[in-house]
Amino acid sequence: MDQITLRRAAAPDMEAILKLQVAVFEGEQGIPGELICSPGDQFLQWWCALEGDSVVGAVAAWKEGEQVHWGRFAVHNMHRGRGIGTKLAVFSLEDLFSRGFEEIYMEAREATVAIICRLGGRVVGKPVAFYKGTVTPVRLHRDDYCCFPG
Question: Which CATH architecture has domain 4-144?
Answer without folding.
Answer: 3-Layer(aba) Sandwich (3.40)
